[in-house]
Design brief:
The complex is a heterodimer of chains A (141) and B (79). Chain A has a single domain, classed as Alpha-Beta Complex (Aldehyde Oxidoreductase, domain 3). Chain A has three helices and ten strands; from the N terminus they run βαββββαβββαββ. Chain A has a four-stranded mixed sheet, with helices on both faces. Chain A has a four-stranded antiparallel sheet with strand order 7-5-9-10, with no helix packed on it. A two-stranded antiparallel sheet of chain A has the order 3-4. The mean pLDDT of chain A is 96. By secondary structure, chain B is of the alpha+beta class. Chain B is 28% helix and 24% strand. Chain B contains three helices and five strands, in the order βαβααβββ. Chain B has a five-stranded mixed sheet. In chain B, a hairpin with a 2-residue loop joins β3 and β4. Chain B starts with a strand and ends in a 6-residue tail after the last strand. Classes of the chains: A alpha+beta (141), B alpha+beta (79). The interface between A and B is medium-sized, with 27 and 19 residues.
């Protein structure tokens, strides 16, 4: 089974990740997932691709800390975080988060918390590639 | 030597993803930042965070060591 927290260039399978999550416990009554995708339009411009740069070793370490914190904070049975790096096309998947708990409320809350914290704490940067040129993305508050 | 890494928009403004800086006794994170900021002012306009040996470093008076790995980073935009 692949690691629960990963940075990778290749696409991921939502079904595969959920199957791995479910395999960790039969007590899981609720699974919440989030998939972030590359939009083809941003700031009034067409976007054809997004390029991701990451401080890989620290990004994986921070994602593992986030997973551990989420499991403790929300009483999860398991959680998985996968983020792509390199170049992804418009419409492609970027990030996958899954949180599994005995009940739905902690799973949903943890999933939201994980993506919000990831954006704040994990050293990854995106550059939008457009017909008019490339531009690094300034984060939304 | 201290290994300094740059990523994303900061690397683009520096024109490099890695530089080496000579370590001197008593050197602190703020000293390294000042030294590099003088060389790359445009890059440091967007620097918001630093990391030392893979850990977020909020205290700029943190002492550095020979062979430290330091990263100066802009706001993250993953996800």
């Amino acid at each position: 089974m692949r690691e629960a927290v990963r940075l990778q260039q290749e696409d991921f399978s939502q079904d595969g990740e959920i199957a791995a999550l479910r395999a960790s416990s039969k007590r899981m009554g609720g699974i919440a997932t989030f998939i972030g995708c590359a939009r083809d339009f941003s700031e009034g411009r067409e976007v054809t691709q997004i390029s991701f740069d990451a401080y890989g070793s620290m990004a994986v370490a921070e994602m593992n800390k986030l997973r551990d914190e989420a499991i403790a904070k929300f009483g999860l049975l398991d959680a998985r975080i996968v983020h792509r790096v390199g170049v992804v096309g418009a419409g492609d998947q970027i990030v996958f988060i899954a949180a599994g708990a005995e009940h739905r409320a902690p799973a949903l809350q943890a999933c939201q918390w994980l993506i919000d914290e990831l954006k704040q704490r994990v050293p990854i940067w995106k550059k939008e590639i457009t017909p008019q040129g490339d531009a690094w993305v300034t984060p939304h508050p | 030597m201290i290994k300094v890494l740059f990523f994303g928009p900061v690397a683009e403004r520096v024109g490099n993803s890695e530089v080496s800086v000579a370590f001197s006794a008593g050197m602190r994170l703020q000293d390294l930042r000042a030294q590099l900021q003088a060389l790359h002012p445009a890059a440091f306009e967007i620097v918001c965070f630093a990391a030392v040996d893979g850990e977020h470093a909020q205290d700029m008076s943190l002492p550095l060591a020979e062979h430290s790995e330091v990263v100066f980073m802009s706001k993250f935009s993953g996800g």
